[in-house]
Amino acid sequence: AVSELREAINRGRAYTNDLKAVKAAAGDEPEVRAALIELEKYAAEGIRPLSDLREEFAKLAGTIVAADRSMSDTDWIGRALQRISSLVKFRRIDGAGEASSTDVLVARAEKYLANGDLESAVSAIEQLDNSAKSTASSWLWRPKVRLGVEQSLASLHARAVARLLAVRG
C-alpha cells in the first residue's frame, strides 16, 4: 500500500484512495500518525512531481536573477543592465562568480534539480537575499511541500518494512 501511495504521489495526482489503503493497514504508532497527518493535507489535489518543479524553476530563474539586479545595482552600469533586463532576461548559467551571488545560487539550484536533488536545490534558493528570495518564494513552497511528503513516505516505508521483518522473524 505504501508503494502504491508513493507511485501516486510521484505521478502528481490526487492520492486520497491510496492514502485510505495505507490508513487501513497502518498501526497506531505516533510516527505513523504524524506521517499520515502530513500526507492528508495534500491528498485531494496531490503534489507537483519533480519534473514539474524543474520546469517551473527553469521558467522563473531569469526573473529571480533580474529581481536581484533591480535591487542591488545603483551605478550607471547597473541602471543600464536593469533597463536591458527589463527587455531581455539574461544571466550566467556556468556557475562562475561569487559563491553567494544570485546567478551562482540559481545556477546551482538548476544543477541540483537536474540531478534530482530537491533538498540541495531548496537550500541554494534559501540562501538568496531580498527581492530575489521573494521572487523565488512563489516556487519555493512547492518543493518544500514535496520534501515534507517524501519524508512522511520514508517514515511509512520504514515502518512497513519493520512490520514485515517482525512477521517473518
Protein architecture, described:
With 169 residues, the chain is mostly helical. The chain has helices at residues 2-10, 16-25, 30-40, 50-72, 76-87, 102-114, 118-126, 130-168. The two termini are 21 Å apart.
Tell me briefly what this model is.
The protein has 169 residues and is mainly α.
User: Shape from CA axes?
Assistant: elongated
* Overall mean confidence score, pLDDT: 85
Q: In percent, how helical is the residue content?
A: over 70%
Output the radius of gyration.
20 Å
**Number of E strands:** 0
In percent, how much strand structure appears in the residues?
A: under 5%
Largest sheet: none
Are there runs of 5+ residues with pLDDT below 50, and where? none
Distance between the termini: 21 Å
In N-to-C order, the SSE pattern is: HHHHHHHH
Tally of DSSP helical segments: 8
Which class of secondary structure composition applies to the elements?
mainly alpha
Please tag this protein with its features.
mainly alpha; 169 residues
Helix-strand layout with pairing:
Layout: H1 2-10, H2 16-25, H3 30-40, H4 50-72, H5 76-87, H6 102-114, H7 118-126, H8 130-168
Helix pairs in contact: 1-2, 1-8, 3-8, 4-5, 4-6, 4-8, 6-7, 7-8
